[in-house]
Amino acid sequence: MASGFVVTGAKLLDLERGELRPDTSVRVEDDRIVEVAEGALRHEGLRHIDARGRVLMPGLIDAHVHAVITSMNLGGMASKPVTLVAHEAGRILEGMLRRGFTTVRDAGGADWGLAEAVNRGFIAGPRMFIAGRVLSQTGGHGDLRSRGEEEVPLCACRVHTSGFSHVADGVDAVRKAAREELRRGANQIKIMASGGVASPTDPIWNLQYSPGEMRAAVEEAAGWRTYVMAHAYTPEAILRAVDAGVRTIEHGNWLDAETAARMVECSAFLVPTLVTYFAIDELGRALGFPAASQAKVKDVLDGGLRSLEIARDAGVPMGYGTDLLGETHDRQSEELRIRAEVLSPLEVLRSATLVNARILQCEGELGVIAPGAHADLLLVDGNPLDDLSCLMDQGKHLALVTRGGEIFVDRTEE
To answer: Considering the chain, what percentage of its residues have pLDDT values greater than 70?
Structure first.
């Protein structure tokens, strides 16, 4: 007999139409939604949950997280035992789920084992789409050595591997590194296309990876029917990446109109991650974030909201990402508030559901409440179309959170 439940008396948030559908029922069996109907549904053998007029919406998706970067003190991360990091990551993932994020895309660091621990129920967390180790050139955003450190030993294929990255130079090395991560269970490949904040030696404007190296990663990902995501801030880096076939641009704070138009031509997505810069600017120094990296935050902070406007006006599809590190993960929902300064609540919600489902190549399965979709549901006290604050406060306003038909939060009787 199938397990499941029926939710009745809900206002269903239809994000495609941008409207609430009153008095709707949803039937869940095992991990899928099997029926959505107007009025009451009755099904013997299943639990019936009275929504009491609350808003029922699909679970949120965060397309840029780092679950295993468990401290802002990046220098101290290298000395942490992996067993401790795994337990810390479990706490971080559970917090995400309780905030209503039922799916996440890890943009570097998490491996197949952590994702499998969630799948098997050892960790209460969102389903994970992992990039594994990121791919970086020497001196790139994934090369975390200080200027004073000597060159790392390199094997014949010129790939040096750490817990977070493969430092791979040249087409052959990039191919090998990409193949290694795909073998290890990566759902997509992550490359570094420009300088970044957390890396110690590369300025934000630094252009990284040649077109040939990028194409090698794209070709290897395509062989596994997946895609490449690229860390990129500048127009030059973004253009090089999308012209090479990269599918999603992460961050993009210095985006300009010409580059946005080219992204549309290339069917590329943008995944802004604004909240992390505010968190680092406010808390980074006190939490041990490297001083050299702290100094670079201002370079990207100011352009963030403007990049949203440029992308929206050009028609670039925008996903929802946060990129938070360590002790700042609890600010995950604040990205909603920041984006609402420029975008409508509906646009923000679509980014965190429908658009992210497209990015993950899971249209019709994630980000929607429809027959055949994963039973990822949120029952909300409040109307997110009017005010996104009902999705903040660490899940305080969520009466029900389910992932794949499993109930993780249940306050429906309160």
So the answer is: 94
pLDDT tens digits along 12-22: 999 999 999 99
Residue 336 sits in a domain whose CATH number is 3.20.20.140
For residue 48, give the nearest of 26, 70, 30 by alpha carbon: 26
Tell me which H or E stretch contains 129: strand 127-130
Cα separation of 217 and 402, whole Å? 35
Mind listing the pLDDT tens digit for each residue in 232-287?
999 999 999 999 999 999 999 999 999 999 999 999 999 999 999 999 888 888 88
Say how many CA atoms lie within 13 Å of 354 toward its Cβ. Answer: 15
User: How far is the C-alpha of 219 from the C-alpha of 327, rounded, in Å?
Assistant: 36
Number of domains in the chain: 2
246/111 same-domain check: yes
Do 113 and 17 reside in the same domain of the chain? Answer: no
Question: pLDDT digit string (tens) for 11-50?
Answer: 999 999 999 999 999 999 999 999 999 998 888 889 999 9
Distance CA 165, CA 175 (A): 14
**Distance between CA atoms of residues 310 and 307, nearest Å:** 5
Residue 293 to residue 284: CA distance in whole angstroms: 9
Predicted confidence band at 74 (pLDDT cuts at 50, 70, 90)? confident
Q: In this structure, what CATH number is given to the domain that contains residue 14?
A: 2.30.40.10
Residue 151 pLDDT: 61
Whole domain around residue 29: which residue ranges?
4-59+367-410
In terms of domains, do 182 and 280 share one?
yes
Answer yes or no: do 71 and 151 share one domain.
yes
**Does residue 91 sit in the same domain as residue 143?**
yes
Same domain, 159 and 48: no
| CB within 8 Å of 13: residues ≥ 6 apart | 20, 55, 56, 57, 58, 349, 369, 384, 385
* 331: its two tokens: 């600010």
